[in-house]
Specification:
cytoplasm; Protein C10; mainly alpha; P_C10; two-stranded antiparallel ribbon
Length: 96
């Protein structure tokens, strides 16, 4: 279902690099590193449990960063951000 919220502003390639760097940095933050370690411990190297415990924590950490750039805090926002950055949409800009 489409969100009624506004579309995020287009990001230049440089801005997309900044967003990605911030997401990576967020995973290095001590409180997030602890959250990820706890999730991995709960998963016990079981792939199904990884999806159950680790993926939601990783998604939350990513969403905390990308919401500052206008992407929604739901699964669609993370998917949209990843799709736009990964595809190089706009050949020099990333956005709608």
């Amino acid at each position: 279902m489409a969100s009624a919220s506004t579309q995020p502003a287009a990001l230049s390639a440089e801005q997309a690099k900044v967003v990605l760097a911030e997401v990576i940095q967020a995973f290095s933050a001590p409180e997030n590193a602890v959250r990820m370690d706890e999730a991995r411990d709960n998963a016990c190297n079981d792939m199904g449990k990884m999806l159950q415990f680790v993926l939601p924590v990783a998604t939350q950490i990513q969403q905390e960063v990308i919401k500052a750039y206008g992407f929604s805090c739901d699964g669609e926002g993370g998917s949209d951000a990843g799709r736009r950055v990964g595809s190089g949409e706009g050949a020099g800009s990333v956005g709608p």
